[in-house]
Amino acid sequence: MGIQFKNVSHEYVGIKTKDEAIININLNIEGSGEFIAILGHTGAGKSTLVQHMNALLLPTSGTLDVFGQILPPKKRERINYLRQKVGLVFQFPEYQLFENTIIDDIAFGPKNFKETKANAYENAKKAASMVGISEDLYQKSPFRISGGQMRRVAVAGILAMNPNILVLDEPTRGLDPLGRDEMMDIFKNIHEKENKTLVLITHDMDIVSKYAKRVVVLKEGKIVFDGKKEELFIHPNFKDFNLDLPTPLKILKYLEEKLGIPFEPKYSKEELVEYLKEAKLWIIK
Ligand SMILES: Nc1ncnc2c1ncn2[C@@H]1O[C@H](COP(=O)(O)OP(=O)(O)O)[C@@H](O)[C@H]1O
Ligand SMILES: [Mg+2]
Predict the structure, then answer these.
(1) Least crowded by CB within 10 Å, which of 2, 15, 188, 211?
(2) ABC transporter domain: from which residue to which, for each copy (predicted)?
(3) Each residue's pLDDT tens digit, 82-98
């Protein structure tokens, strides 16, 4: 189960031009346990790709299998239920808040997916606690809280539907460094505690390096890399992907060059600091 793309292309038909946004995509995503980062420049096709995962967009050629549902669907086949299975958090999701209270906004999704009212609010409260929205905020207006909190409410609204796969389109964009780390720790928790598959679009290589297990790189609508994070940074074609190296790897390369500290890949600030503590002893000796 999970999601399988088979030769999927998507062409936006505009007034003047036809624009093939993703081309011949073959991609398998497991229904649990994955943490995938989707990388690529603006216009590479990332958003188009992920909107196929819950049938917001349908392939113009090729097929998808999303938890057994074949897309494009047969005539009159209902596919709305896929929005519950694969939860998609858009860029700037806080723009889509609209209810009078925070808790009503979070419960909107499950109410819509035919949960009983009691269950919907039960799910909403659980989701609120997962994103660190405390009970005293439930009855507040979602428009009278900080930007970071608004985004967490929007994420909770998707979590409340208990999707198998959570897809996040640039969830840390526009957040300050602290807000960014808090948001990522929320996702890490969801991934670890509930074993949910996470698919994350980001431009932030430090986030990729610290959190992702697998990376898919898109270039001009095509997949140019799909593999383990550890393999990406040492890939012979890495330069062609036009990606930056994550900060810990940059620092380690520099230290090797300038101080001869042996290069050993580290993927987060925390791992880097641990390694440098040892390296310091090594220099003094
Ligand atoms: N609604 C749309 N109509 C027409 N073209 C679109 C639309 N959305 C995206 N595109 C085009 O499809 C290509 C891929 O866009 P997108 O999937 O948004 O890339 P990314 O998310 O990587 O920035 C771009 O050339 C973009 O201009
Ligand atoms: Mg995009």
Answers:
(1) 15
(2) 3-245
(3) 999 999 999 889 888 98
